[in-house]
Amino acid sequence: MSIKQALAMVVGCFAIGVTAGGGIGWVVGKLSPELAFALLPLLDDTADGLAVCTSLGLINGAWAGIAVGIAVTAVVAWFESRKLKH
User: Keywords on this record (predicted)?
Assistant: First the structure.
């Protein structure tokens, strides 16, 4: 796996994670905006529950996508290094 392929893998997983996390956060915020106030008790009453849930989904999706991209890249690199030895 080249550096370009590894970077493309991490960026692709990041994009998928942000999209999925933002979508899930939006759905949760749309169905239950009071969840944002339960998760973050220091929010004031004027905060928008939908925006908070969507933001949390985006952030968590981004971190999950980066983690998955790095993990997949590491496994593929390890597999390719093992294949070269045999």
Answer: Membrane, Transmembrane, Transmembrane helix
Residues 22, 61 contacting (CB under 8 angstroms)? yes
Other Cβ atoms within 10 Å of 2 Cβ, number: 7
| Residue 34 within a domain | yes
Residue 85 domain-assigned (yes or no): no
pLDDT digits over 12-66, tens only?
Answer: 999 999 999 999 999 999 999 888 888 888 888 888 889 999 999 999 999 999 9
pTM for this entry: 0.82
* Domain count across the chain: 1
